[in-house]
Amino acid sequence: MQQGGSVPPAPSSRLSPLSHEPAGFYNVDIPMDSTKDVKKKEKELKAMEPETNKREKCFIQ
Question: Where is this region: Disordered (predicted)?
């Protein structure tokens, strides 16, 4: 038993180096919502808000 608290590394603990392959990260174009779509969605959410609030009140009580 060794003293001093250190343990020598096992000979098989060395990691093998990674291969020299490309990582596979590519640029992807993600279309952003137009202002028109955002305004439409905002209008829909505002229309649903009273019903959502009503359901929340029923759930909490």
Answer: 1-61
